[in-house]
From TrEMBL:
Its main location: membrane. The chain crosses the membrane at residues 12-45, 66-90, 151-177, 210-234, 241-268, 274-295, 307-336. InterPro entries: AI-2E-like. It comes from Azonexus hydrophilus. It is a multi-pass membrane protein. It is found in: Cell membrane. Keywords: Cell membrane, Membrane, Transmembrane, Transmembrane helix, Transport. Coiled coil: none annotated. This is AI-2E family transporter. GO terms for cellular component: plasma membrane. Belongs to the autoinducer-2 exporter (AI-2E) (TC 2.A.86) family.
């Protein structure tokens, strides 16, 4: 039986539940950007509080504005530059393909195609078949046109979505910096109420995990992208800046960088620059790819160690769910989930 206060109590609970659902529904379209803003804030809060804010006399608004301006240079400007490089690269690809569309393929393929391992002979035979028949070439181009158009639309959408999300991230992170002390205190108070000392410990562990993952993934990607861009410039590969950015993003998956420097080496070989092609292949194997085995373990050791599988699944799943910023957010979320699961299993084993 309910007493007189039960209906009122139930109404209060229902109101709170509806309010939580309403807030979650409103924030759902922006949840990825908000979470990524928290990731950036967590990784830079100590530096901002101990180094930047004291030099500004404790002026929160000025300090937050300065940090956002710095993040614009680090995050938003390269993304805009990447979008421009993609457009430029698409124009160059069109200029490269257009003569073959207008005049047809040469009767004989490039000599290096015949020496291609395993499939060289089939590629040459297919080339001869396409070169002899204009109808076959048109049919091949028609088959390739729809996927190519869809890929370009998808790539443009990802970049545009990434720019919008990064702009929202910068907007949210401004308030996190400005009101950072209040936010940090609220997080610790909430964790203490929910889990006591365990809750506080999980907050500290979560911060270490986020910092370690971001340093390991982004730091390694930045190192590989920079070194790769230098190699592309030296070897004379096409669009070295675009290839450097592509290496940066694809370095977050295990086989990403070899796809870029390997493709550049093949292009140089096809252009008859055999020496530079060999240089690019050796440079890629010995320098670009080796960074992943040297830099990443050092940086990841500062947080929680993660397997390559978790990082790869985090990158792919993050992009599918959150778009562009999922490259960074996905591995962080999986790292936190892995940490919580490990902690829970350890407690179950010891109890």
């Amino acid at each position: 039986m309910f007493n007189d206060s039960d209906p009122k109590r139930l109404a209060q609970i229902a109101l709170v539940v509806l309010l939580i659902i309403g807030c979650f529904t409103v924030l759902l379209p922006f949840i990825g950007a908000v979470l990524f803003a928290f990731v950036i804030w967590v990784c830079t809060w100590e530096l901002y509080r101990e180094r930047v804010l004291p030099r500004l006399g404790g002026r929160d608004t000025l300090g937050a504005s300065l940090m956002v301006a710095l993040l614009v240079l680090i995050l938003l400007v390269p993304t805009i530059f990447l979008a421009g490089a993609l457009v430029s690269g698409a124009d160059r690809l069109i200029d490269l393909v257009k003569p073959y569309v207008d005049q047809g393929l040469p009767a004989e393929p490039p000599a290096w195609l015949a020496g291609f391992p395993l499939f060289g002979g089939q590629i040459v035979d297919f080339w001869h078949e396409i070169a002899r028949s204009r109808e076959a070439l048109n049919a091949l181009l028609a088959q390739m046109l729809a996927p190519a158009r869809q890929f370009l639309i998808l790539a443009g959408g990802v970049v545009a979505n990434g720019m919008l999300q990064l702009a929202l991230v910068l907007f949210v992170v401004f308030f996190l910096y400005r009101d950072g002390t209040t936010v940090a205190n609220a997080l610790y108070v909430g964790a203490r109420k929910l889990g006591g000392e365990l809750g506080e410990g999980m907050i500290d562990k979560a911060r270490g995990t986020v910092l370690g993952v971001m340093l390991g993934i982004v730091g390694t990607a930045a190192a590989q992208g920079s070194v790769a861009m230098l190699g592309f410039f030296i070897a004379g590969a096409p669009a070295p800046v675009l290839l450097g950015f592509a290496t940066f993003f694809l370095s977050m998956i295990p086989v990403g960088p070899p796809l870029i420097w390997g493709g550049a080496a093949l292009w140089l070989y096809g252009e008859g620059q055999i020496g530079w092609a060999i240089f690019m292949a050796l440079y890629g194997m010995l320098i670009i790819s080796s960074i992943d085995n040297v830099v990443k373990p050092i940086l990841m050791a500062r947080g929680a160690g993660l397997s390559v599988l978790i990082i790869a699944l985090g990158v792919f799943g993050g992009v599918l769910v959150f778009g562009f910023i999922g490259i960074f957010l996905g591995p962080v979320l999986l790292a936190l989930g892995h940490m919580l699961l490990t902690r829970w299993l350890r407690e179950e084993t010891t109890s």
